[in-house]
Every structure is written in structure tokens, then in C-alpha cells.
Specification:
Blueprint: H1 2-28, H2 30-33, H3 35-55, H4 57-61, H5 70-96, H6 109-133, H7 135-141, H8 148-171, H9 174-178, H10 193-219, E1 222-225, E2 232-235, H11 240-260, H12 262-268, E3 271-272, H13 275-279, E4 290-294, H14 307-310, E5 316-317, E6 323-324, H15 326-338, E7 341-344, H16 355-367, E8 388-394, H17 402-409, E9 417-424, H18 432-439, E10 444-445, E11 450-453, H19 461-471
Parallel strand pairs: 3-5, 4-7, 4-8, 8-9, 9-10, 9-11
Antiparallel strand pairs: 1-2, 5-6
The structure holds flavin mononucleotide (FMN).
Length: 472
């Protein structure tokens, strides 16, 4: 009877844990599953988390007993951090909720958003590590333990998925969320959610496999040859290994931040480019004249002399030592291919040098009902002289920068064909197609939009050329 009870309890615990593992990647796909569903999943995860702790309450009461091995220290640290992160997640979720808790009207949305983003990503990592640290329990539960061949096959399969998971983690800019070099979760809404989920499951497996092998390293008995008979004798694991592991982890962290992830390097360091080479394009014959209108941070920002120290993503330095923005570089590619004119939109009051501050200023602009003032409005190109307008601008807060809207509001667009090249930091189109269409009075936005990821801008000439060939 007792055995049956404990079997049932084990099964309930396992079901709760599996449900959590399934919900976590879904939670990461927040805008892809829809905000309301995201909030419902978040609350469900929180309930499961509490249930998990209640079901495993024995762990808490056993904390005072037993020896503190290196593995136990790591396990406990992971658990405590997870608990704190879950609290941070819930508090920030209450602050930024748009559906379930919106009536609470708690302030501090800007901080709440950043806290939620960073806590969610760290929680994802720690939950994956936690899973890896308990892999033996999982394999015992599913009866895999005694099957040596199956264990070996699974090890190879998981190792392969983990390699992909490591790549997916970098591809999805996860380190930039973990170390807060990116202040939004940029998700490409046009991507099928299943691809996103598969990537996050493999990232989870990557961390779980790393934790599993890390734990093995900590607990493997050190062997030494017995002087007398030359046979191996087991020795208890040493705390020294924990120190070595921590030092290695710290070194890996530092290496990852400084050099390991190309995105981060690009984020911190302005990239030097040969703009002539980067924008060299074969001619594309289009009927009628083209006006290319671009908006970029460069030319609209008071960059500090030591720009790398305060600014970040998407800045390039050309062969003359001048800063170039993504949209500016791409607009130049367009002009080199199709000719016509390029008009750069300029705001009167420049944005701050710091990337984070620019994001805050832009957020305030979106909340305001007025437009930022533009310079040169007396010398706007006469749109009547052109057959088409190609807009090139960055995605800001998942939509059209307010300066671009300000410019469009002052133009007579009737009869123009309007095309769009949008650069972004991972957020894809955001809500730009619908938002921009609403701004184009008298003109229609062509559906064929070219999306360029910010780190790829200096290598985008080929894609821009192919796209230009399709638009006439
Ligand atoms: C104020 C601001 C808001 C941004 N918002 C988003 C966003 O919501 N989604 C995204 O993917 N990238 C976002 N980005 C990143 C830019 O879209 C991306 O880095 C772009 O390529 C920059 O182009 P630029 O060099 O021409 O300014 C934002 C950047 C800034 C400065």
C-alpha cells in the first residue's frame, strides 16, 4: 500500500516536472504564442513551481543534515537562484501585465520589462541546469538506468542536440539577454513558432547536458594507483574540484563576454568596414526615378568621441573614419544599383549617444502624441518627381521610428509606389507593415519587404541586389 502511495507521489512529481519543462520554452516564445497565452502560461508555470516545491518539501527539511559535498553546494545554489528568479519573474510580470493583472496598475513598466527579460532568460538556463543535475533521477524513473546500450545511444543523441543547442543559443542572441546588452526580446513574428520551440528545446538540452557532465566531473572518485600492488583505489571527491569548476565557469563567462560571442563583440565594438566595397552594386534598371529615404541613428545622434564605450549595436566606421548606420549603408547600396536620390531624415533634437538612453527616448516619443521636429523640411525632395519611394529604416520598439512617421506625415505620397527595407535586431517586421501602411496616405506599401538583421548590414549587398530585381 505504502509502496503504491510512494509510486503515485513519484508519478505526480514527474508529471509536474515534465509540465514545467514543456511550458518553459513556450514561455520564451512570448509574442509568438500571443501575449494573453503568454501570461496564462506564466501563471501556470508559477503554480507548477510552487507545487514542485511543496511536493519536494523534504529537500528543505533535509538541508541541515548530511555532508555538504561540492555537488550539493552547486545543487543548492541553483535551487536558491531559481527561487529568487521565479519571484523576480512574477513581480515583474505583475508590473508589465497587459491582460491578467492589468487592473493592478503597478508603475515601473520600463524596469519591469528589463527585469522580466533578464530573469526569464536566467531562469531558463538554471531550470535546464537543474534538469541536467537530476538527469539520473529522470533516467531511473523511466527505467533507462540498467540499459547500457540505450544509455549510450541517448548520450550521443543528446550530445548532438546539445551542439546544435549551443549554436541556437548564439543565433538567438541569448547571451545578449542574459548579460543585458539587448533590452527587448526581439522575436521574428513571421517565423513559425515550431522552429523557435525546437531551438529552445535544444538550448535547454545544451545546458542540461553541460550540467550532467559537470556533475559527473564533481562526483567521479579520483583514482590513484596503490603503491603496493599497482591497482586503482577510489578516493573521495574533493571540494577542490568545485573551486576548479567555478574558476573555469568564471573564465568561460569572461571569455564569452569579451570574445566568445561575435554578436557581443559587434555590440560593444564599432566594426570597421570598407564602405565602397560593401555598397558596390551592379546596376538594376527600374522604370522611372527612385527616391530612397533613409533614417538611421548616425546623423541623428550626438555620439560621444569614445563611441564604443557608451554606444553599441549596429555602428560601423568607414575607411574615412566616419560612422555609418545600417540604414545609411543600405540606402547607399540601393542608390548605387538604381540611381536616383537618397534623402536622409534628420531630427532637430539629436538622440543621446548611449544605446540604452536612445531606447528610453524613443519609448517616450512613442507615448507622446506629437512628432519629433525634423530639420530641412523646407528642402524635402518633391515626391511628384519620382515614380517610387524606397524607405530604409530600423525597427524601433517593433514599429516605425517616430521620425519616419513625422517625415511621411509631411509628404504628398499620392501615386507613389512605396517599398521597404527594414533593418532589425532580431524582431523581424514587428508591426511595421500594418503601422506603415496606415501612415501612407494615398500610397500603398508593397508587400515584398526586405528584412536585414543588423549584424548582417555590411554584407547585405547581394540580398539588396536580388530584392531590387524583383520590385519593378
Ligand atoms: C530605439 C531603438 C529601438 C529598437 N527597437 C528594436 C526592436 O523593437 N526590435 C528589433 O529587432 N530591434 C530594435 N532595435 C535595433 C535596431 O532595429 C537595429 O539595430 C537596426 O539595424 C539599427 O539600424 P541603424 O544602424 O540604421 O540605426 C532598436 C534600436 C533602437 C536604437
Amino acid at each position: 500500500m505504502n509502496e503504491k502511495k510512494s509510486k503515485n507521489a513519484k508519478m505526480i512529481r514527474m508529471c509536474v516536472d515534465i509540465a514545467m519543462v514543456i511550458l518553459m520554452p513556450l514561455l520564451m516564445a512570448y509574442s509568438l504564442v500571443g501575449e494573453l497565452l503568454h501570461e496564462i502560461i506564466g501563471v501556470s508555470l508559477f503554480v507548477l513551481f510552487i507545487t514542485h516545491h511543496v511536493l519536494n518539501r523534504k529537500w528543505l527539511s533535509s538541508l541541515k543534515q548530511g555532508k555538504w559535498t561540492a555537488l550539493r553546494v552547486v545543487n543548492t545554489a541553483v535551487n536558491v537562484l531559481m527561487f529568487l528568479l521565479m519571484l523576480a519573474m512574477m513581480v515583474s510580470a505583475l508590473i508589465i501585465s497587459n491582460y491578467l493583472f492589468v487592473s493592478l496598475k503597478l508603475g515601473g513598466a520600463a524596469i519591469g520589462r528589463v527585469l522580466h527579460l533578464v530573469a526569464a532568460n536566467w531562469l531558463f538556463v538554471l531550470m535546464s541546469l537543474h534538469l541536467g543535475l537530476h538527469m539520473n533521477t529522470v533516467s531511473t524513473y523511466f527505467g533507462i538506468g540498467p540499459h547500457k546500450t540505450l544509455r549510450r545511444v541517448l548520450s550521443v543523441v543528446f550530445a548532438l542536440i546539445a551542439v546544435y543547442g549551443c549554436y541556437a543559443m548564439i543565433k538567438r542572441s541569448m547571451p545578449s539577454y542574459l548579460f543585458l546588452t539587448q533590452f527587448f526580446a526581439f522575436l521574428d513574428d513571421s517565423e513559425p513558432v515550431v522552429f523557435f520551440l525546437l531551438d529552445y528545446v535544444s538550448i535547454m538540452i545544451f545546458f542540461a547536458v553541460a550540467a550532467f557532465w559537470g556533475a559527473r566531473l564533481l562526483t567521479l572518485p579520483r583514482t590513484r594507483r596503490s603503491k603496493e600492488d599497482g591497482t586503482k583505489a577510489a578516493k573521495a571527491p574533493k571540494k577542490k574540484r568545485l573551486k576548479v569548476l567555478l574558476i573555469l565557469a568564471a573564465l568561460a563567462l569572461v571569455a564569452g563576454i569579451v570574445w566568445g560571442v561575435p554578436y557581443l563583440r559587434r555590440h560593444f565594438k564599432t566594426v570597421t568596414i570598407d564602405s565602397k566595397m560593401a555598397t558596390a552594386m551592379p546596376a538594376v534598371e527600374l522604370s522611372g526615378r527612385t527616391l530612397t529615404v533613409q533614417f538611421t541613428r548616425v546623423g541623428n545622434t550626438d555620439f560621444a568621441p569614445d563611441v564604443d564605450a557608451v554606444s553599441s549595436a549596429s555602428l560601423m566606421l568607414d575607411e574615412n573614419g566616419s560612422l555609418v548606420g545600417n540604414a545609411g549603408l543600405i540606402a547607399q547600396m540601393v542608390q548605387n544599383a538604381v540611381g536616383g536620390d537618397v534623402y536622409p531624415i534628420r531630427v532637430k533634437e539629436h538622440y543621446p549617444s548611449s544605446y540604452a538612453d536612445t531606447i528610453s527616448v524613443a519609448s517616450r516619443e512613442f507615448k507622446s502624441s506629437s512628432f519629433p521636429e525634423l530639420t530641412g523640411s523646407d528642402a524635402f525632395p518633391d515626391t511628384a518627381a519620382y515614380e517610387r519611394m524606397i524607405l530604409v529604416f530600423p525597427l524601433w520598439w517593433s514599429t516605425v521610428p517616430k521620425a519616419v512617421e513625422a517625415y511621411l506625415s509631411q509628404q504628398d505620397l499620392s501615386g507613389l509606389k512605396v517599398y521597404l527595407i527594414l533593418t532589425h535586431g532580431g524582431g523581424g517586421k514587428g508591426s511595421v507593415p500594418a503601422d506603415l501602411s496606415a501612415m501612407l496616405r494615398g500610397a500603398v506599401l508593397d508587400e515584398n519587404i526586405l528584412l536585414i538583421y543588423d549584424d548582417d548590414a555590411d554584407e547585405a549587398a547581394g540580398r539588396v541586389y536580388e530584392w531590387l530585381k524583383t520590385i519593378d
